[in-house]
Amino acid sequence: MDLVLYAPGLGYYASPEVRRVGRGGDFYTSVSVGDTFGFLLGQRLIQEWETGFNSDRRFVVVEQGAHDGQLACDILQGLKGYGSILAQSIEYRIVDPREETRAWLENRFEAEGLGDRVKVVETLEEAQAERGIFLCNELLDAFPVHRLRFEAGQWWEWQVGAEEGALHWVSKRVSTELKPYVEELGDDYPEGYITEICVAAEDWMREVAALFKSGLWWIIDYGYQAEDYFAPHRKTGTLRCFREHQATEDPFEAPGEIDITAHVNFSHLRRAAELAGLSERRFTDQHHFLIEASRPWLLSIEGEVPGPEQARRMRQFQTLTHPSMMGQQFKVAEYSRDI
Asked: Is the N end or the C end of the chain the one with fewer CB atoms within 10 Å?
C-alpha cells in the first residue's frame, strides 16, 4: 500500500500536479467540494485563536497530507476575505517528505501571493512550535494497513504474493508485531471474516503529538469507533479502492493507478493519542464540527438577500454538513494538551 500510493514517479499520490479528485477524478473530498471547507476551518481557527490562544501575535498552524496545498489556500484566502486580523498573525506550515512536492508547493504559494504566510518543510520536527494547531484531512485513511483473516478458528495475516506476474493474497501466520492486536480481537468471528490493523498510526501519533508543548490536534477522516469497526456484519473489512468514482475491493486491479484506502479505527487512534500525552477534547462528525464553526459567518449574513457568491457557498455548506452527504461520513477527532 505504501509503495503503490507513494513510490516516487509511480505511486498514486507521487505527484501533486495529478489531481484525481472531484468530478473528473476518482473520488470527492471535502476540499474538492469547493473553498467553503477551508473557509469554515478558518472560522474555527479564529474562534480558537481568540479564546484558547489569547490572540497570540504568532499563531502557528501545521498541516500534514496537504497534497497540492488547496486547503491551505482556501483557509488563508478565506481569512483574508472575511477580514479577520488572524490573516496577519497566522504562520502556516506544511509538512511533506518529498523534495519535488515541496518545491512545487513553494512555487504555488508564491504564485498565489501566500509565500510570506506558508512554510513548507520536510519533517514534523521542523514544524515544531511552543503552541499551535495541527490539522490533517483524509491523511490516515491512506496509511498502510495489515490485513487479517479469520480461518479455521484462528487469525491469519493476509500478505501479498506474486505468481506468474500476477499479485494475489497469501495467508501467513500472524507476526509477533500483530499478536497483541489479535489477542485483543479475540476469536468470536465468523469464518472468512476480514479486518485491518494500522500499526503505523501509533508511531505517527507519537511524532505528531510532539509538535507543540500546548495545542490542538484536528484529525478529519472517515472511520469508526472499535465496536463498529470490528462489528460482525463488517466481514470484508474496510479496505477499498476507487477509480472514476467506482469502488472495488481489489487492490491488485491497477497498482499505482487507483486509490487504495482503509477506514480509520478512531478508538485505536484515541488510545495512541493518550499514550502520547494528549487528551481527547471531542470526537464528533463533520456535520456538528462545521455547524459550530459556521455560526459567526451565518450570523453575519443573517437577513441578507444572498447573491451568487453566497448562494454558491451555501450549496457547498449543505454538501459538507448534510447528514446524508458528507456530514456523517466524515469524523473529527480533536485532541488537546494544555489548552
From this structure: C
